[in-house]
Specification:
Two copies of one chain form a homodimer. Chain A is mainly alpha-helical. Chain A has two domains: 57 residues, Arc Repressor Mutant, subunit A (Orthogonal Bundle), CATH 1.10.10.60; 122 residues, Tetracycline Repressor, domain 2 (Orthogonal Bundle). Chain A is built from ten helices and no strands. Chain A binds a DNA duplex through helix 1 and helix 3. Chains A, B: Pfam families: TetR_C_14 (PF17754), TetR_N (PF00440).
DNA sequence: CACTTCGTTGCACACTGTGCAATCTTGCAC
DNA sequence: GTGCAAGATTGCACAGTGTGCAACGAAGTG
C-alpha cells in the first residue's frame, strides 16, 4: 500500500487514454470499424504501446481499468457465517456499485455491444477470466476444491450468467431501473430454483 | 425433406474432412500451433475453402457438424404441460445423448481445450449462438418475449453454464461417469436454488 | 444439350497480435 | 546530483487470420 509513484500513474494514464479513445471511436463508428492504429493515434501513443496494455482489442473497451480482483476482495469482506449464495450476492452488489459510479460510460459500452452482435460473445469471453477468479474465491470461502467439487464452479458460472443477463436488461431499459434491483430479481429467481415464469 | 443430393453430400464430406483434420492436428500439436493452411492441406482442399465452411478456426474444432438447431427440436417434442425447467432438462438430455454417440471425439476435443486455457473462452463464445437459440425456444414454449422478459434469457444462460460445467467435469473424470448423471447433478443443484455445498 | 446454381479455388489485401532490440524516463542508492 | 537498474514506449519485421472478388468446374434442371 505504498505511494503509487509517478511511473505507475503515467502508466495508468496511458491505459485510461487508450480506453477512452476506444470508447469514443467505437461509439462513433462501431468497434469493428475502428483499427488499433486509429485508437493509438487518438490516444497519442504508438500502435505497439496499445498491446502493452491490452492483449486484445476488445479488452480496451470492456476492461478500462486494470485487472481488478474486486470480487474476491468484496467476498472476503462478508460475514463468515453467511451462506455462499447470499455472500456472493452481496459481493456482486458492491461490484455493480462500482459500475454504477461510471454509469454513462458503461451504458455506452453496452450500446456498442448491442449495436454489434458479433461482439457479445467477446464480452462473455472476457468474462471467463473473472468467472474463474470468482470460482476460486468461492472455493476458498467454502473450503471446497475448485477443480473437483461441483459447487464453486457452478455457482460462479451461474452468477456470471445472471450478471450478464442483468447488464443486458439494464441497458435495454436505458439504465433507468436501478442495476441493483434488476440483479436482485435475477438472483431471486435463481435462489427459488427457476420455478417458472413468475417474474415478467 | 427431399433427397440430400450429391452436391450437398460432397459439401458435408468436405466439412467433415476439415473437422476431422482439425481434431487430429489439434490433438497432436495444439490448436494454436496449427494453421488453417495445414488443416486445409490435410483435408485435401484449398486454404480458401476452409472459410467457406467455418468462419473462425475454432469453429472447425467445436462444431464439426452443420449448425444444428437440435435443442429447439427436442424441446418441442416434450409434453406441453411440463414446466419449463424439466422440459428444457429433458431436451438437453437428448442433446447430450448425441454427444455421447461421439464419445471419443468429444473427449478429445475437450482435451484440446483443457490443454490450451486460452481456448476455453472461445468455446463459450461459440456457445452463445446456441444460448440465443435456446432462449428463443424457451420463449416460444412459455409464450414470453425473449427480449423483454427475464425468464427465457436467464434460464437459457444458466442451463448453458450448467452444460459447460458438466462437460468440464465429464472430461476431468475421463468420461467414465455417465454424462447424463453429471448433468443431472448440476440441474438438481440449480432446481434446489443453489442452497449450499451439499453435492461434493 | 444448353443453362443455371453453387462449391471450390487463387489472388490480393487490411488488420491483428507477437518477438526483438533500441531508446528514453522514472525510481533509487550512493 | 550522479550513476544505475527497472521498466515503459517505440519501430520494425513477420506469421497468421479472415474477407472480397472473379474465375472455373461439377452438379442439378429443363
Amino acid at each position: 500500500m505504498t505511494t503509487p509513484g509517478l511511473r505507475e500513474r503515467k502508466k495508468q494514464d496511458t491505459r485510461a487514454a487508450l480506453a477512452a479513445a476506444t470508447l469514443r471511436l467505437a461509439v462513433e463508428h462501431g468497434l469493428a470499424a475502428v483499427t488499433v492504429e486509429q485508437i493509438a493515434a487518438a490516444a497519442g501513443v504508438s500502435y505497439r504501446t496499445f498491446f502493452n496494455h491490452f492483449s486484445v482489442k476488445e479488452e480496451a473497451l470492456l476492461r478500462p481499468a486494470g485487472t481488478e480482483r474486486t470480487f474476491a476482495v468484496h467476498l472476503a469482506e462478508q460475514e463468515p457465517q453467511l451462506p455462499p449464495l447470499p455472500a456472493a450476492r452481496a459481493a456482486l452488489r458492491s461490484v455493480l456499485a462500482d459500475l454504477d459510479a461510471d454509469r454513462e460510460a458503461w451504458l455506452q459500452r453496452l450500446s456498442v455491444i448491442a449495436a454489434e452482435p458479433d461482439l457479445l460473445p467477446r464480452l462473455v469471453e472476457l468474462g471467463t477470466a473473472d468467472e474463474r477468479a470468482m470460482a476460486e474465491a468461492i472455493a476458498a470461502r467454502t473450503g471446497l476444491d475448485v477443480d473437483t467439487d461441483l459447487y464453486p464452479g457452478l455457482l460462479a458460472a451461474v452468477l456470471s450468467c445472471a450478471l450478464r443477463v442483468t447488464l443486458n436488461r439494464w441497458h435495454r431499459r436505458g439504465g433507468r431501473e436501478p442495476l441493483d434491483r434488476l440483479f436482485g430479481e435475477a438472483v431471486d429467481a435463481l435462489a427459488a430454483g427457476l420455478p417458472g415464469p413468475s417474474a415478467a
